[in-house]
């Protein structure tokens, strides 16, 4: 997949943008060309005709309402001026040669028009006939210079519109003449304008594509350069997303990823350092003691053998811890749930520390109100208790005191949960270290590592086990005063009755 991408040639953002803008400009230009050049004549003519119809409507309406032609005269004159049309109203009569008309009103605004130059009854009758056959309306475009020759040299295209109306039993025919301005000059002006607009639009598209793509692609190019450094293992990178929301979001995500990778890398390096240190110490001791015992038979004492055995055990438990953590990571752990006496498990664990108490003067106090039963994985809960007590013993203060307190908690009048607190009076943990102590291989500082030979795995195992049990857990600590690690388990159903 990656290889495919590398081999494929991709067009740059700038070129893509330029072509998009250019395409947009071409569409705009095509629309302008179509409406302003190609369809201009048709649109103009249909608008003119529409105007004529509107004028005819208004004129017929006013004519219908007017009591006499005299009272109608002024309004008709205004309409003729308003729409720049000439019109004549004829009263239609029948004579021996067919239909003919007597002009009852005449308004003239153009210098030369069709309706004032009809000389033959034939044309008149034809217009009447056409209108009669066509729902009382007829229209035609004529070039007056074609029809009237030299006389009409200045007059070009005109629209002739005829409408038949009835007023007071009489049949009236209104003839309109509207002049159509020649559009050739306009069209050629527009054509020149459009050529200029095309050049300007294409130039603008190029400049816009250049500026915008620069703004967008610059941060992306810079981020990609930083990302290639990251890919080579340089975590000291800074992604700058410029000022677009998307690139800013991307840069924030990449910065976070770089931070996490750096953290992971540091953890891995620490792990190798820790693990090699932790493995080396017992191995050195084992090698040293066995060599001494081989070379000096007098040194093969039970105490020295015990040291070798202890160190071997320590190695075994270290390796077991590591295996366990990786198993939790793989998510393959399942709980073997059973009902067991939780208080008894704590007591048994504490018995292991009896020797420690005797020899090194540790005071390990267990406070419990009563024996409680829980439903959990006994082996794993024992591991949790053991790890917490072990840490408390390792990190407690000079008074060498550790308190383990078990409290039954009540909810809704039923014994609900049991809270176990493991409290020491030691050095404590600073606020910034507190959330991190649960992470794999985390050790507060080298001093502890040296002093207590911890692996940094214990609390990670505790956390994983308690998470699997869906149990609450946490820690309160104050530097110099001590720590209290706690967790809470649900009591088994049979154990919830308060005695
Ligand atoms: P370790 O094997 O190093 O003890 P843990 O995961 O059990 O590993 O603990 C992680 C770190 O948390 C320890 O290295 C230690 O610095 C700190 N820590 C754990 N328990 C205590 C405690 N009771 N008091 C002070 N620091 C503690």
Structural features, described:
This protein is α+β, with helices and mostly antiparallel strands and 499 residues long. The chain folds into four domains: 10-65 and 183-234, no CATH class; 84-182, Beta-Lactamase (2-Layer Sandwich), CATH 3.30.450; 245-329, Signal transduction histidine kinase, dimerisation/phosphotransfer (DHp) domain (Helix Hairpins), CATH 1.10.287; 334-495, Histidine kinase-like ATPase, C-terminal domain (Heat Shock Protein 90, 2-Layer Sandwich), CATH 3.30.565. The protein has 14 helices and twelve strands. The chain has helices spanning 2-7, 13-38, 40-65, 69-83, 121-133, 144-148, 184-231, 245-295, 302-330, 342-351, 354-360, 378-395, 446-452, 458-468, and strands spanning 85-95, 98-107, 137-143, 157-167, 170-179, 338-341, 363-368, 373-376, 401-411, 414-424, 472-478, 482-490. A five-stranded antiparallel beta sheet has the order 2-1-5-4-3, sandwiched between helices. A five-stranded mixed beta sheet has the order 7-9-10-12-11, covered by helices on one side. A two-stranded antiparallel sheet has the order 6-8. α2 (13-38) crosses α3 (40-65), α8 packs antiparallel against α9 (302-330) and α12 packs antiparallel against α14. The radius of gyration is 51 Å and the shape is elongated. Residues 447-452 have low confidence and may be disordered. The structure holds adenosine-5'-diphosphate. Residues 387, 391-392, 395, 424, 426-427, 429, 437, 442-444, 448, 454-460, 483 line the site of adenosine-5'-diphosphate.
């Amino acid at each position: 997949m990656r290889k495919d991408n590398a081999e494929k040639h991709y067009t740059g953002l700038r070129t893509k943008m330029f072509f998009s803008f250019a395409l947009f400009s071409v569409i705009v230009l095509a629309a302008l060309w179509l409406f302003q050049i190609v369809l201009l004549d048709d649109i103009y003519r249909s608008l003119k005709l529409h105007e004529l119809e509107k004028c005819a409507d208004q004129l017929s309406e006013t004519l219908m309402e007017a009591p006499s032609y005299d009272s109608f005269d002024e309004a008709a004159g205004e309409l003729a001026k308003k729409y720049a049309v000439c019109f004549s109203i004829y009263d239609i009569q029948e004579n021996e040669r067919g239909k003919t008309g007597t002009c009852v009103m005449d308004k003239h605004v153009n210098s030369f028009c069709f309706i004032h130059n009809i000389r033959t009854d034939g044309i008149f009758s034809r217009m009447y006939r056409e209108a009669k056959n066509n729902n009382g309306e007829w229209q035609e475009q004529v070039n007056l210079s074609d029809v009237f020759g030299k006389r009409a040299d200045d007059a070009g295209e005109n629209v002739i519109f005829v409408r038949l109306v009835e007023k007071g039993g009489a049949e009236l025919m209104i003839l309109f003449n509207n002049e159509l301005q020649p559009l050739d000059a306009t069209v050629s002006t527009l054509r020149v304008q459009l050529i200029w607009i095309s050049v300007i639009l294409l130039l603008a598209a190029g400049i816009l594509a250049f500026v915008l793509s620069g703004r967008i692609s610059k941060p992306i190019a810079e981020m990609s350069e930083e990302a290639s450094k990251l890919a080579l293992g340089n975590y000291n990178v800074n992604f700058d997303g410029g000022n677009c929301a998307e690139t800013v979001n991307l840069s924030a995500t990449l910065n976070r990823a770089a931070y996490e990778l750096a953290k992971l890398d540091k953890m891995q390096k620490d792990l190798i350092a820790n693990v090699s240190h932790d493995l080396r110490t017992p191995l050195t001791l084992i090698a040293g003691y066995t060599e001494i015992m081989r070379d000096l038979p007098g040194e093969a004492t039970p105490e020295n053998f015990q040291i070798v055995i202890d160190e071997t055990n320590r190695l075994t438990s270290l390796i077991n811890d590591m295996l366990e953590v990786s198993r939790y990571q793989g998510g393959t752990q399942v709980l073997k749930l059973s009902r067991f006496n939780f208080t008894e498990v704590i007591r048994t664990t504490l018995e292991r520390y009896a020797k420690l108490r005797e020899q090194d003067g540790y005071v390990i106090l267990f406070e419990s109100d009563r024996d409680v039963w829980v439903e959990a994985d006994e082996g794993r809960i024992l591991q949790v208790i053991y790890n917490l007590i072990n840490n408390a013993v390792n990190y407690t203060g000079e008074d060498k005191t550790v308190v383990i307190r078990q409290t039954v908690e009540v909810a809704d009048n039923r014994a609900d949960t049991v809270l176990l607190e493991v409290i020491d009076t030691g050095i404590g943990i600073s606020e910034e270290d507190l959330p991190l102590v649960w992470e794999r291989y985390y050790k507060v500082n080298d001093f502890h590592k040296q002093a207590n030979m911890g692996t940094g795995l214990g609390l990670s195992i505790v956390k994983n086990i308690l998470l699997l049990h869906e149990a609450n857990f946490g820690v309160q600590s104050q530097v110099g005063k001590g720590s209290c690690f706690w967790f809470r388990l649900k009591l088994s159903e049979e154990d919830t009755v308060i005695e």
